Structure formats: C-alpha cells, structure tokens
ArsR family transcriptional regulator (Agromyces atrinae), 111 residues
Amino acid sequence: MTGTATLTHTAALARLGSALSDETRASILLALRDAPATPSDLAEALGVSRQVMSNQLTCLRGCGLVEGVKDGRNTWYRLADAELADALGDLLRLVLVVDPDCCSGDGCTCA
C-alpha cells in the first residue's frame, strides 16, 4: 500500500503505539511471539499479578493484537496474526538503529 495515510490508518497506528507504550504489554507481545501462553503463566513469567495480566490482555485484545483460545478450563493467548511476530522482530531491529546500546550479549533478541 502506498499513498497518503487515512485517518483510519492514523488511528490504527496510534492504537498500536498505545499498546506498545506500556512495558508490560510490550513484554506480553514479545513472550507471545515465542509461543502461546496462559494468563497465569504470563503473569508468573513477567512478575505481575493476575489482575494486572488480565487488564493488559484485555487491552491487547481490544487493540486486535492478541486473541484467546479456549482449551477446556484454560484460555491460551496468542498473537492475533502470525505477521505480528515478524513485525515485532522488525521493531526490535529498529530499536538498535535508534539506540545501538540498548542491549547486547547472548540474551539480546534484537538482531
């Protein structure tokens, strides 16, 4: 798609920016980039309460970035579209352009 962005494009981009502006939400998206997870597993991995996780997942669902899939008594969350994983990887690489010293070493997933 080329040309001038519409107000719809602008609103969608702003919604994405809002979702990414919170460190917990960004961490959730990066975790789900690797594999689907339950809210309790995400809460434990990220060191937040289940209530905080519930609120953040609600926000991400509202933005259209994640979806919940029922599996018996559990709900597994995953990225709403496989292209989001690639886009998050691209954003991580962009972080290195903006801030080359942001991370380094074996744990860095930017490159």
Q: What stands out?
A: Residues 22-98 form a domain with the Arc Repressor Mutant, subunit A fold (CATH 1.10.10.10). The mean pLDDT is 88. Helices lie at 7-20, 23-34, 39-46, 50-62, 82-98.
